[in-house]
Amino acid sequence: MYQVLLLNDDYTPMEFVVAVLQKFFSMGREQATQVMLKVHREGRGVCGVYPRDIAATKVEQVGSFSRQHQHPLQCVMEEV
User: Fold this and answer.
1) Buried b vs exposed e over 58-79: b needs ≥16 C-beta within 10 Å?
2) What is the model's pTM?
3) HEC sequence for 25-37
4) Which residues in 8-73 belong to E strands, given as ranges?
5) Hey, which bits of the chain come out as E strands?
């Protein structure tokens, strides 16, 4: 299994991060806001834990969506 993480940067708006968490990780607004704040304060936050193929797809979807909106938001996966 792999955990999917968002990494903090100084440019991506907090609202965009919340929107990404809601859109790609099916989080409610409250949970998405909590994860966004964790990313903001600690430099990274876990979005979810998935099998390798699903985790890789989520990383690609978030990266592509962020680039389309011209944000440098980074999404990575790590084996757990």
Assistant:
1) bbeebeebbeeeebebbbebee
2) 0.95
3) HCCCHHHHHHHHH
4) 44-50
5) 2-7, 44-50, 74-79
Q: Are 62 and 20 in contact (CB under 8 A)?
A: yes
Scanning the structure block, which residue is given the tokens 């979005």?
A: 47
- Tokens found for residue 21: 């968490």
What's the distance, Cα to Cα, between the start and end of the chain in Å? 6
Q: Match 């430099």 to its residue by tokens.
A: 43
Nearest CA to 50 out of 40, 34, 62, 39 is that of 62
Q: Which two tokens stand for residue 57?
A: 């797809």
pLDDT digits (tens, 9 = 90+) for 18-63: 999 999 999 999 999 999 999 999 999 999 999 999 999 999 999 9
